[in-house]
Amino acid sequence: MIDLNNGWKFELVTELVNGHLFEYDELKMRDINVPHDYSIEQPMDWSGASDGCVGYARGGLAWYRKHIYVDSDMLYNKKVFINFDGIYNRAHIYFNEQLVTFHPYGYSPCLVDVTPYLKEGDNLLAVYVDHSRLCDSRWYTGSGIYRKVTMHVLPKTYIPVWGTQITTECNSHEFAKVNVSIDLVNEESFEKHLRVVTSFISPIGELVAEHENHITIDKDYKLTQSVEIKDPTLWGIYEGFRYVAITKVFDGDYCIQTKETVFGIRYFHFDTNEGFFLNGKNELIKGVCLHHDAGLVGAAIPNDVMRRRIEMLIMAGTNAIRTAHNPYSADFFDLCDEYGILVQEEFYDEWDYPKGKKFNQKEKLFDYKFHGHDEFFREYGKQDLQNVIKRDFNHPCIIQWSIGNEIEWTYPKYNNATGYWNANAGGGYFFNEPPYSVEEIREICRKLPKEHIEIGKTARMLTDWTKEIDTTRPVIANCILPSASYESGYVDALDMVGFSYRRIMYDRCHKYYPDKPIMGTENVAQWHDWKAVLDRPFISGLFIWVGIDYVGECGGKRGDTGMRVTPSGFIDAAGFDKPSFHMMKALWREDTPELFIATNTLEKSVYDLKDGQLVQKKGLPVWHRRLWVWHDMNTHFNYNLGEDIVVEVYSNCEEVSFYQNDELICTQVESDNEDRIYKCALKYRGGEIKVVGTKGEHKYASVIKESLEATDVFITVDKTEISTNFDSVVHVVAQLKDKNGVEVRCKEEEIEFLTKGSDGMVRFLGVDNGNNSYEATYQNPKIQTNRGRALMIVGANRPGIMKVCAEIRGTLSNVIDINVVE
Predict the structure, then answer these.
(1) What angle is formed at CA 450 by the lines to CA 449 and CA 453, rounded to 5 degrees?
(2) How many beta carbons lie within 10 A of that of residue 251, not counting itself?
(3) Model pTM greater than 0.85?
(4) pLDDT tens-digit profile of 367-377?
């Protein structure tokens, strides 16, 4: 495998030009490396040309060009493939001025055979990206060659790039049977007699098994090898143990190809009554949905950025991720394998019909810029779906294939069968069962006129495509109206059913449709959704919407929302924790003491004070009907003297005591609060709040202090050594502090991040503060803090010492040296 990520030329254009021709003037093009996202590097567009659905990002037309030198050896008896892991979108790929393929879907890999176009010497690879439909999604997509590009030079008789599939059979830790399916292709004009040897290497690097076959191949050949491994080291949650299968193909004594396949040994199943089992142990899926952007870096995500995000999610107790609503990069699945994170990989947000991009449920086409992928679905869907599965088949992290997200909105004839919209139900499908019975919904669906394209038929088509490649993982979908989907034929095509915000339907569907496992696949980060899982052994777990804030899905005009980032995550777009992060950590990490303090004025809180007790304010959702965005709480203790203050504590301790300036205010036990939030009211007297929690035989304390005016800024970094690789970056976090060293989180200041290195050394990726309404560009090192914090991400282009710091009102922070290696 040859890395083709460096040395590209790039140009944004306003019309189609002949950028695929050798004669095209490259002097007007920029030098770049890929992955590259040309939306995130442009200023946001508030003019109305863009929209909140994509975070007011710009798109446009662009050309990428790269010259590849080909020697005579590569031309002789070789096959050459180029793999684009992701191009957004509608990409035309040219090689030596010839169109090789058109690839419209922005999330699936594109593997092209350029062998017929090769010539000795200089070769030109050119890619034309048409993201003129800049609002073609309900969320931020990015633009360009935003994932990695590799070249694969193979012999004429070869194992294809995605030509090995490994399955494991085991039901204990004593032994495992490992089956390797190997595709071989012979493009010679004669038979080949080959020897194929596969060696199996353990997670600690030991040879644990080997298998050899002698075969004669005419054209295509599928070889299966099986070995038994004693006492296997199983891949599991937070245990990313992986094996490597090294397959060598010999022609006589000469090794013509070596292929390494990384895999994990694990076994799992979903039970209709008892939930999810991994390696024989009943586990709860504590999952989050994620969109594929990463804040300030957009869609072109260095691995270190994704590492930081995954590690934050793990800190909260997350053990699973749903790739909403599209396939992710190969790098992402490598990281989930490494960290031991379960994955539900989703294929599509749209099938045959479009979704409304500005407003969900208004499923109609708007103007040209809103046209999505549905027009390409029928022609390219099978190829895209199966290429994703072939690429990702061997990742042990993947436990489910999801064929679609809330697809029911685009087949609306079945929606009224539920009665929610035409039986005086007020559309209350989140917290109310359908007004129609199962029998009534079934009869209504039966009488509906059948059409050429039906949701059940399309679902069956997608499931069949999936199972042509993989029968080892269940097929699921995220169903927003399961009461209709069970009767429309949709669920008939699935192995198990995912419920989108429909916890109210768990018992009903388990009773009337007991043959298929069910779980939450889109839920809110609130106690009531998790409680619904804990109360029902037949529910395998859930996926919260969302783990991390994401750019886009801010429908309407700018003035309607004031947002470019959707704030439904328990981690913000800069990767900083929110109060809800600590609530989920308290719920999900039961064995780890959690004791987090949040405050607000009584006036701005969700409470009123009645007879000295905090009660829910009238007109606001009660705790078991709260949705995506956590109620407004602060992480500081700065108010007006004598003001009524609410203090909340998110904790998994059995008992919590509240102290203001060492005076005991109250003591509560967990059962005192049905919403699982410890809370009390007090008069503000400055100083500090301390809470002491009791868990088992141990006591734990947490303190939040009043701060003075910010006088300093202090920086921390997540590492002090990086390399010049695209994936290696450092996160620099700036925190305001007062003269006593107390963190200031109540008042914001403008700071400037500073970097110093040799000429051209620093690769500045951008800054962010996590504020979902912040309007400044990511590319300006000056930024206003949010909750007293801000983030800069930098990489490096060449080795040496890079210095990083921040400045507030002319005063420098501490300075940290970053050692950059080649």
Answers:
(1) 140
(2) 14
(3) yes
(4) 778 888 999 99
